[in-house]
Amino acid sequence: MKGTQAVEQGNLEVQVAITSTDEIGILSESFNLMLDKVRQKERIKATFGQYVDPRIVEELIHQKTSNNTTNKQIVTVFFSDIAGFSTISEMLTPGGLVKLINQYLTLASEPIAQNNGVINQFLGDAVSAFWGYPFVNENDHAKLACYAALEQSNQLNKLRRMMPETMGLRKGLPEIKVRIGLATGKVVTGNIGSEHSKFYTVMGKAVQIAEQLEGMNKIYGTTILLMEETKMLAAEAIETREIDRLYLGDRNEPIGVYELLSYAGELEPKLAEWRDRFEVGLREYRQQNWEQAQSNFQACLHLKADDKPTQLYLKRIEFLRQNPPAQDWNGVWENFG
């Protein structure tokens, strides 16, 4: 009785003493064998939980068959990368580099896990994750992905405080910045691979677009970019500003791209004004009203002097005044060379 009560309370290390060879002894032995199997399953979950999301491990353990485990669904994909990582890696010994990467990936993973996301892959210093059913509510995946992205800045601050010890330096520490892309769309989820080796992953255009948006941050001088579908689904939970319209993936129509700024209601009044003036300037820009667009963008710089997208649009206006687009121009800039 004490053994069963201990197991009920979560103690799997209990062992029932076998003191007879009658039915009670046989029952005690069977109980111990059952506990051995439970402990073995828990060890498997603990071990593979370091490589695969524990919820996926749980699902795989309880599956009776490995066939037909894929499905199509709408998810939000997160892709992040450390800016200028190759330069940072050249400063470190192999051991120091591995330690820094492990520290960063541990910190970057925490907000994803806390917001019920699934880590898809670690690709060097890059992190790929996704949110979708059954791991989160069907209506929450975009919002939770945005939360995880916003919380990365706090994790970076923790990493910066750890770096002197990690790198053995007090001065000359590299500046660590992370770029993030978020995209929402229909993907295939499930166990993908050969007969001998499979892994749980997502495949689809949203994965490609999230990675593209991560890279586009470099051009715009932003930190977090998300596609319009993601913004629409999470609109009540976040503050954004429209940045551009871009051809992403293999879509024939341009996609609205937004910068993720903060949680809803947490944008300072001055930054809210800056965001609103920027979007007015963007509308005038698309209508080829160069003077009005320039005036609004210059007002943005008075509110936030180091704003890279504003500086970028002022350069574009200067170019387009000298090289006017067609009257039916859709406002999409394609000269990224």
Task: Give the proportion of residues in helices.
Answer: 40-55%
Can you give the mean pLDDT? 84
Structural class: alpha+beta
Give me the CATH fold name of the largest domain.
Alpha-Beta Plaits
Under the CATH scheme, which class of the largest domain? Alpha Beta
Q: What is the distance, rounded to the nearest whole angstrom, between the alpha carbons of the first and last residues?
A: 75 Å
Main sheet characteristics: 8 strands, mixed
Supply the CATH superfamily name of the largest domain: Nucleotide cyclase, GGDEF domain
Structural domains: how many: 3
Shape: globular
Number of helices: 12
Assembly type of the chains comes to single chain
**Compute the gyration radius: what is it?**
26 Å
Compute the number of strand runs.
8
Proportion of residues in β-strands: 15-25%
* CATH architecture descriptor name of the largest domain: 2-Layer Sandwich
Order of helices and strands: HHHEHHEEHHEEHEHEEHHH
Low-confidence stretches: 7-12
